[in-house]
Amino acid sequence: MQIIITTLVILVIGFIVGYALVLTDKKFHVDTDEREQAIRDALPGNNCGACGQAGCDAMAAAMFKGEAPLNGCPVGGASVAQMIGQIMGVDVEAAVPKAAFVRCSGCREVTRDQGRYVGIMDCRAAVQAGLNVTSCVFGCIGLGSCQKACPHDAIVIQEGLAHILPQKCVGCGLCVKTCPRALIELKPRDRQVAVRCMSHDRGPLVKKVCTAGCIGCGLCEKVCESGAIKVEGNVASVNYELCTQCGKCAEKCPSKVITLPRSA
User: CATH number of the domain at 191-264, out of 3.30.2310.20, 3.30.530.20, 3.30.70.20, 3.30.565.10?
Assistant: First the structure.
């Protein structure tokens, strides 16, 4: 008899709790516009956060409310942007396709290790510990934090240097956020001319630690007819919007640290 009473009590409590949950759900339920759900379905579902939102749900809500650009998903690209534009009934200009680029050419052939590194294989941990894995304090540490952060296997570490695989990179930018030395940037995919160095040391000191570093000589800036390349802080950088891809800067660079356009 005691078992039957206990069972009935549990059933009654369960019914009351269930009914309370139903009432609570109805009270606090917020209707979602079907277009917002359609946007969410159009997004790739990576939940990578590369768009600046917490995930695809948050991005869909932000797009629907006008708080995020409809072409703001770097993983989905132009096709997803067009789909979302159709859902919202507006024309959406495709975002410029971008890819990550490592601004360093300091592999082990051109620079040298400070010593044998023993510790967590993480660039951020090494920086936080104040350890210089290589002789250049501006260069790629090569412990693979960016590689681990990339959800598309678009980064490999070779000879102590990170390399981007353009055919796999979707331009999500997670590697950019991960690099503790800010060596990775997103640049337009069709802009090949770029400087593979971020050292702010003067030329003689650069050459002591890396034979492939920018020496800040300014020859690239002098030959650039479009004003797309400047030397600031002893290192050259390219304005991709102004660059015409002529390749003159790369040809003139004595350190050969500027990449040539593919057609050159």
Answer: 3.30.70.20
Rounded to whole angstroms, how far apart are CA atoms 138 and 214? 12
3-state secondary structure 126-181: HHHCCCCCECCCCCCCCCCHHHHHCCCCCEEEECCEEEECCCCCCCCCHHHHHCCC
What's CA 191's distance to the chain center, in Å? 17
Write the CATH number of the domain with boundaries 97-189: 3.30.70.20
CA atoms of 46 and 56, how far apart (whole Å): 7
Give residue-wise pLDDT tens across range 26-52: 655 455 678 999 999 999 988 888 888
**Which pLDDT belongs to residue 263?**
45
With 0-12 CB in 10 A as exposed, 13-18 as middle and 19+ as buried, what is 51? buried
pLDDT at 264: 42
Tens-digit pLDDT profile for residues 207-238: 999 999 999 999 999 999 999 999 999 999 99
Evaluate whether 35-88 and 97-189 have a shared fold. no
Which of 71, 75, 65 lies closest to 84 in space, CA to CA?
71
pLDDT in tens, 230-253: 999 999 999 999 999 999 999 999
The Cα–Cα gap between 155 and 147 comes to 5
